[in-house]
């Protein structure tokens, strides 16, 4: 009774191990193992400390200083008279508590405002890294599937060419075909063998690229279902996508924040000409031990306003202001460049999705036509109205069409993800509908 149970358990374990990984599972592996994403996450964690550091310059600073001093001195009169000689042996302990509260320091205020911008920049850069991870994973995933399709198509073509070569050899032996048919079939066979070698190497390269993202050798991957229907992007107006990209793209957001920070930098550098005002308070405790006349304790407290007015600094402040104005102009142009690039990517991706959909539809029709052409050529070859090279060409055309069709579907899916990334709206949830198109191989 135990053997059947063990067999069932082993079969279940085998089926679990044989389960192919889908796009969501591969993405989860990338979240845990991708070094680039981990670096961006650490940078975001560091950026969240910027506000605390910037605010510290506006808060009071409190410090304690102290010293312990021992002073020994001897005095001897010229006539060695004990009445005129003497000395001292003193031990002094001092402890001072000082508080300083900035009242007017414009540079520190601008630094605090910049710290908010710097934290926002780090968060936007991390969001950009999350989007990049989604597109990188999807790209690497479908690159592996495309390489697998190419290899499978090449091997199927190899099987067909091998059969055609054997048929040509048999027909030549019985005298129904010429040696030319055999040579043509042999040439086609040699070509497909070289293509198979290249396809195997390309598949290994694509798997290595995916492994660099997920940290482990990729398992068997779920494949795209045959005959899936891909939908057009919503909204269908390209201008709406371009407008979203110009305003919501994370690279544009970072550039906008950097421009605002550059403006703050100008004001901060101009503060080198401004006075500074601080509230200063201190409490000093002094304890002296020594000769009776000099021993004692004292406490003193003070509070007041301390100000400083800069007069001349060798033109350094003026130079820093000019530098920050130039950097502000650079940041403004960087923002415009990022806006234009985001609009360009959005437009290209939108056209890529729509042209991809049209290409998929055309290749689906071409697949049906190529399959019919192959069957017709096979029949014509059997009755003698077609020659061997016609069948070989028809086979090559059919397998190439199937490969192109699969790649067109992958490229259309990736263009849709890149379109959302350009508009700043790509999220992990966008992988769910794509994952639903996959099946276990």
From TrEMBL:
Residues 1-20 form the signal peptide. InterPro entries: OMP_efflux (IPR003423), T1SS_OMP_TolC (IPR010130), TolC-like (IPR051906). It is found in: Cell outer membrane. Pfam families: OEP. Transmembrane segments: none annotated. Its main location: membrane. Keywords: Cell outer membrane, Membrane, Signal, Transmembrane, Transmembrane beta strand, Transport. It comes from the Bacteria. Belongs to the outer membrane factor (OMF) (TC 1.B.17) family. This is TolC family outer membrane protein. It comes from Massilia pinisoli.
């Amino acid at each position: 009774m135990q053997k059947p149970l063990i067999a069932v358990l082993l079969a279940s374990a085998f089926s679990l191990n044989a389960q192919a990984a889908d796009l969501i599972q591969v993405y989860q592996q990338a979240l845990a193992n991708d070094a680039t994403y981990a670096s961006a996450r650490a940078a975001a964690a560091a950026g969240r400390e910027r506000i605390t550091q910037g605010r510290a310059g506006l808060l009071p600073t409190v410090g304690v200083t102290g010293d312990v001093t021992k002073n020994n001195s001897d005095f001897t009169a010229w006539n060695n008279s004990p009445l005129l000689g003497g000395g001292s042996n003193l031990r002094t302990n001092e402890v001072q508590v000082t508080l300083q509260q900035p009242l007017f320091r414009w540079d520190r205020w601008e630094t605090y405002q910049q710290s908010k911008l710097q934290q926002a920049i780090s968060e936007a850069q991390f969001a950009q890294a999350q989007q990049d991870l989604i597109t990188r994973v999807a790209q690497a995933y479908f690159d592996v599937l495309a390489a697998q399709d190419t290899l499978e198509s090449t091997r199927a073509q190899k099987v067909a060419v091998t059969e055609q070569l054997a048929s040509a050899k048999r027909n030549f032996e019985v005298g129904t075909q010429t040696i030319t048919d055999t040579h043509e079939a042999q040439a086609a066979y040699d070509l497909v063998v070289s293509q198979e070698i290249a396809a195997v190497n390309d598949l290994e390269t694509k798997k290595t690229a995916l492994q660099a993202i997920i940290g482990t050798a990729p398992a068997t991957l779920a494949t795209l279902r045959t005959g899936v229907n891909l939908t057009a992007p919503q909204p269908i107006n390209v201008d709406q996508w371009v407008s979203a990209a110009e305003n919501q793209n994370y690279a544009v957001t970072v550039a906008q924040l950097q421009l605002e920070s550059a403006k703050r930098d100008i004001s901060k550098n101009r503060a080198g000409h401004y006075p500074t005002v601080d509230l200063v308070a201190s409490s000093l405790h002094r304890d002296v031990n020594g000769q009776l006349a000099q021993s004692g304790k004292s406490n003193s407290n003070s509070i007041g306003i301390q100000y400083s007015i800069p007069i001349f600094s060798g033109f350094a402040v003026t130079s820093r202001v000019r530098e920050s104005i130039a950097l502000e102009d650079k940041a403004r142009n960087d923002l415009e460049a990022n806006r234009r690039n985001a609009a360009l990517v959005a437009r290209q991706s939108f056209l890529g999705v729509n042209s991809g959909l049209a290409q998929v539809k055309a290749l689906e029709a071409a697949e049906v036509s190529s399959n019919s052409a192959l069957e017709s050529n096979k029949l014509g070859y059997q009755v003698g109205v077609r020659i061997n090279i016609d069948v070989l060409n028809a086979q090559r055309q059919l397998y190439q069409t199937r490969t192109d069709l699969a790649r067109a579907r992958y490229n259309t899916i990736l263009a849709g993800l890149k379109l959302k990334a350009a508009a700043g709206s790509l999220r992990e949830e966008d992988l769910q509908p794509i994952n639903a198109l996959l099946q276990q191989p």
